[in-house]
């Protein structure tokens, strides 16, 4: 069973949510984790892809949008709206409105919620699904 952590931000800003996601992505990368960033759409994937180049001066995180091809460089962060490939299922950073498919195979799932009503509603739904699966959940109010 995966370890699930919810990070609840005090803002409704999508930009601040994405910035926080980039910090978690960087932390995972620096610890040698093959993270997959799950999004709702190609547009959202593109926003995260662009932000990873600029969110912090001097930061470099190898990343790419996942399009059915496994990256040649193994330690690459993948971003996409589809299910992660097997090598990237260990750590999932969930920015989507849905629970990751086959979430039981993950070691760690990081859920990032902002304070908007829609995001909180989706988060509550995923929280219940994890609870029903018998997963222990940690919540961090930021």
Question: What does this 3D model show about the protein?
Answer:
- With about 140 residues, the protein is of the alpha/beta class.
- It has a single domain, classed as Rossmann fold.
- It contains three helices and seven strands.
- Helix 1 crosses helix 2.
- The mean pLDDT is about 90.
Mean pLDDT: 92
What Rg do the Cα atoms give? 14 Å
- Order of helices and strands, N to C? EHEHEEEEHE
Q: Based on CA inertia axes, which overall geometry fits?
A: globular
Which CATH class? Alpha Beta
**Which stretches are poorly predicted, pLDDT < 50 over at least 5 residues?**
none
Distance between the termini: 25 Å
Note the main sheet.
7 strands, parallel
The total of beta strands comes to 7
Strand content: 15-25%
Order of strands in the sheet with most strands: 3-4-2-5-6-1-7
Helix content: 25-40%
Topology of this protein?
Elements: E1 3-8, H1 14-30, E2 35-38, H2 42-54, E3 63-65, E4 77-80, E5 91-94, E6 108-113, H3 117-132, E7 137-141
Parallel strand pairs: 1-6, 1-7, 2-4, 2-5, 3-4, 5-6
Helix pairs in contact: 1-2
């Amino acid at each position: 069973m995966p370890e699930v952590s919810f990070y609840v931000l005090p803002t409704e800003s999508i930009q601040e949510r994405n910035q926080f996601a980039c910090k978690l992505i960087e932390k995972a990368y620096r610890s040698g984790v093959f993270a997959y960033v799950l999004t709702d759409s190609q547009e959202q994937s593109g926003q995260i892809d662009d932000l990873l180049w600029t969110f912090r001066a001097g930061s470099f995180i190898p990343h790419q949008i996942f399009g059915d091809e496994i990256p040649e460089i193994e330690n690459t962060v993948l971003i996409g709206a589809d299910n992660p490939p097997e090598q990237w299922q260990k750590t999932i950073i969930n920015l989507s409105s849905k629970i990751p498919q086959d979430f039981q195979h993950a070691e760690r799932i990081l859920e990032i919620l902002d304070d908007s009503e829609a995001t909180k509603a989706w988060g509550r739904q995923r929280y219940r699904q994890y609870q029903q699966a018998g997963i222990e959940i940690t919540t961090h109010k930021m």
